[in-house]
Amino acid sequence: MKKKFIKIVCGDYIQLNLNGNELDYSLFKPIFIILLSSIAWCIGLYINDVNQTDVFFMIISLTILGWGFWAVSIWYISNRFLQIYMNYRSILRLLAFSYLPGILMVLISFKIVNSNIIWLISRIWILVIAVCIFKNFANISLRKSFLLVFFGWVSSQIIFGKFY
Question: Which of 6, 8, 62, 144 could link 163 by a cystine bridge, Cβ 3.0 to 4.6 Å?
């Protein structure tokens, strides 16, 4: 398990495509990662004395919607403009791995660093990991991978705001 995680973090994302056992197209693990990231954010807010349960449900639902919207934008741009044909479910699965730094949102509860700085660091880290994932998975240049991922990331940040 530890070696798999290190391979994923260090950039061996193509293994997710080559090994038939890993790419089973189930969305249980990706949704679990997304929920873990958004629950970490909710825990950080709860420790900061945000009492409203509506905020928690809103953050969880908007995180899942933002993930889906980002995947749709990557799928559309890759198939329509860049002529890179990728499966939508595989895009969802790959993007879920990039959400692992969202667990840093638990650190919002500590008053050492401003919560906006932690939010910005985690979102930029998610973007960098997503660029690396799609560069290795689709065998494209870093520039194409950045353009592919960046447009959806920016539009998701604009549409869903800080709750994404």
Answer: 62
